[in-house]
Write a structure and sequence with these properties.
153 residues; mainly alpha; 4 helices; elongated
Length: 153
Amino acid sequence: MSSPRIDARSWVIRGLVLGGVFVVARAVVGDTTKAWPTHGTALRMLGLVVVLAVAAAWGFVDGRRDRTQHPDPELGGEDLTVRWLAAAALAGFAGGLVAWLSGKVGLELGDKSLLFELTSGAAWTVLLVFIAALAGKALGATLATRSSAPAER
């Protein structure tokens, strides 16, 4: 039995888009915090929710599509866990690198070092994206199973 293949484009696209969402969220939070410094915590939470929502929504679509195409998970399906782990890792490292580079050219995305952005910062982003995407995948697969179950009876 062969192991499931992962389409390289699928995780790269997901990783780059979510890395971009992460950087844009940090930029918007940084700019709006300058304008409204007393609302910094709420703005950071809003940026966090945006990143989580995008990852969860994309995971939901993946899980629903996979379960619709492969109704019996025992007989096959795509390896969405590995796809999303690779995408989350790319989002974390690419987002951290772009955020650090943006700080060097004058954008205010924080004053963290490259070491921090590529270790702790990237790990946090990987965790957020991966957990949110897998939660969305599980919900999408569950809802796809429930919506097809009455038709089979």
